[in-house]
Amino acid sequence: MSVTQMPQPRTPNSDHDQTVTSRADHNRIIHARNEGMSLDLEWLDLARANYSALQRRCKTIGTRRSVKKHWQAAWLLKALTCIDLTTLNSDDTPGRVRRLCAKARNPVRRDLLEALGMGEHDIHTGAVCVYHEMVETAVKALEGSGIPVAAVSTGFPHGLSPFPQRVAEIKASVAAGAGEIDIVITRHHVLNGNWQALYDEMSAYREACGEARVKAILGTGELATMRNVAKASLVCMMAGADFIKTSTGKEKVNATLPFTLIMVRMIREYEERTGFKVGYKPAGGISTAKDALNYQFLMNEELGHEWLQPDLFRFGASSLLADIERQLEHFVTGRYSAFNRHPAG
Q1: 3-state DSSP call for residue 180?
Q2: In sequence order, what are the residues at sequence separation of 6 or more whose Cβ sits closer than 8 angstroms to the Cβ of residue 101?
Q3: Does residue 176 lie in a domain region?
Q4: Band (223; pLDDT cuts 50, 70, 90)
Q5: Is residue 56 packed enough to be buried (19+ CB in 10 Å), middle (13-18) or exposed (0-12)?
Q6: Per residue in 70-92, pLDDT tens?
Q7: CB 247 within 8 A of CB 284
Q8: HSE (CB half, 13 Å, CA atoms) of 136?
Q9: Is 1 contained in some domain?
Q10: Tell me, what CATH number does 322's domain have?
Q11: Taking the mean position of all CA atoms in its chain, how far away is CA 309?
């Protein structure tokens, strides 16, 4: 049975047999942008996070749920359309970025797609993420593909450059053609409980982005408590963030399922109160197909089908794509290939 012939993939052990689309044509469902709201300190005071309960919930994700064969292939095809294919190295070159963009356009070998029954579908990654210096190169390489360029900004990864410089960096990347901006919040605003300062900072970043969508990187591993993660998530959404994102990928602790769970529950609460859908992006340390499946299962169960689409869910990753392609090749051929057969760029 080919991927195109099969029904929608499911998580066999989920309580309500929730489904996720098997389509991998990457048609985008663009929701209205988050317009934000006034800072509500009373709402923040109500934010709670039970770390033990979060851990218990997350331990069930990989143990009670399993997808195999064509179901797994469909989930993994969906996962790769949600990848922000990333290179954020000091030795990045225009040539490397162009190769990465070529991979973003064609993330899976054509022979594998044809074997999966997906040869006629336009499958590509969610975005390509680079430093500002490489934005113009990436925009030119992706011209006509519909793949946006995401630029990390605001003194990435630490976010401690002078504030006017951070705002100017956003504007420069937007002018260069970036359609998405990944900003870094000032962590000490969170650690000091200075929520007004964080709100004002995020609002300024949102305004500087103009039409470009803004992803707020919280640096969850450096925020000390889960309650701080919950509050920072809410403040960034109140200030107009289109996505909230765990990490820069440069911290000692990056994306984890417990961080994801508390953040997506804040997203759900924000939608219930305001009607605006905010996206989620885990980043850092997500390198295997099994990891990707666990994050997808959690998103599907906590937020529903809409949050499995690239306009509301992204993986920040550089090596994840290679393992997904290996798993797809194993499904087609029954054999695992070496990683060097699936270069990212």
Answers
A1: strand
A2: 128, 138, 141, 142, 147
A3: yes
A4: very high
A5: exposed
A6: 999 999 999 999 999 999 999 99
A7: yes
A8: 4
A9: no
A10: 3.20.20.70
A11: 10
- Number of structural domains (the chain) is 1
Alpha helix segments (H runs only) across 251-307: 257-274, 289-302
Tell which phi-psi region holds residue 224, choosing left (phi > 0), alpha (psi between -120 and 50) or beta.
left
Residue 257 token pair: 């399922």
165-174 pLDDT, tens digit each: 999 999 999 9
Q: Which amino acid is at 296?
A: Q
The answer as to whether 31 is a domain residue is no
Task: Report the range of poorest mean pLDDT among 20-34, 52-66, 146-160.
Answer: 20-34
CB 81 within 8 A of CB 106: no
Report the predicted TM-score, pTM, of the whole model to 2 decimal places. Answer: 0.90
Residue span of the structural domain in which 243 resides: 41-341
pLDDT of 29 reads: 58
Among 211, 206, 222, smallest CA distance to 160 is for 222
**pLDDT over threshold 60, residue 43:** yes
Q: Quick check: is 306 in a domain?
A: yes
Give me the active site residues, please: 182, 245, 281
- Residue 317's H or E segment, with its range, is strand 315-317
pLDDT digits (tens, 9 = 90+) for 115-139: 999 988 999 999 999 999 999 999 9
